[in-house]
Amino acid sequence: MLHQEKPTLDDLTIQHFGVLGMRWGIRRHATGGEIRVARRSAARTEMAIEDAKANVRAGLAAKDTIAQAKLAHLNNPDRVIATRITRGEMAVSAILLTPLPAMVLITGSQFKSRAIESRQKVGYYNRFDKYHQQQETKRGRGGG
């Protein structure tokens, strides 16, 4: 074995030591711990919206802070992970619910997370910020 030549790339693929282009150690699905951390992060951005609303009511901040907090929450990448269901939640829903509602719950969370992810990628939520900026410029022109 020591004095043999190194195997070629074709020899390795024939013996199937891996698939070309395969990346080792990359997970496709979030673990339960990652989902819980993402839920906490999403909850913090929701609380930031409530704090911004309270500050506007108290006169401590301008109304645009609410829009900025909402946009930060909508574009938060953790929202995608937070909508997913952990394996434990899947098991409990399968045990406690009949099979049909359990499947609806699981597939619904998958579709929701994919929808949020695709909207974030195309900048769908940024249009709300653009609309808000247009409204602010209209108010500025009308009052001036």
Task: Explain what the structure shows.
This protein is mainly α and 144 residues long. The protein has a domain at 29-125. Helices cover 71% and strands 0% of the residues. It contains seven helices and no strands. It has helices at 9-15, 32-58, 64-74, 78-82, 87-96, 99-122, 126-143. Helix 2 (32-58) packs antiparallel against helix 3 (64-74), helix 3 packs antiparallel against helix 7 (126-143) and helix 5 (87-96) packs antiparallel against helix 6.
Number of helices: 7
Average pLDDT level:
80
SSE succession: HHHHHHH
Percentage beta strand: under 5%
Low-confidence stretches: none
User: How many beta-strand runs?
Assistant: 0
Largest sheet: none
Ends distance: 85 Å
Short structural description:
This protein has 144 residues and is mainly alpha-helical. The protein has seven helices and no strands.
Provide the fold topology.
Elements: H1 9-15, H2 32-58, H3 64-74, H4 78-82, H5 87-96, H6 99-122, H7 126-143
Helix pairs in contact: 2-3, 3-7, 5-6
Quickly list its features.
144 residues, 71% helix, extended, mainly alpha, single chain
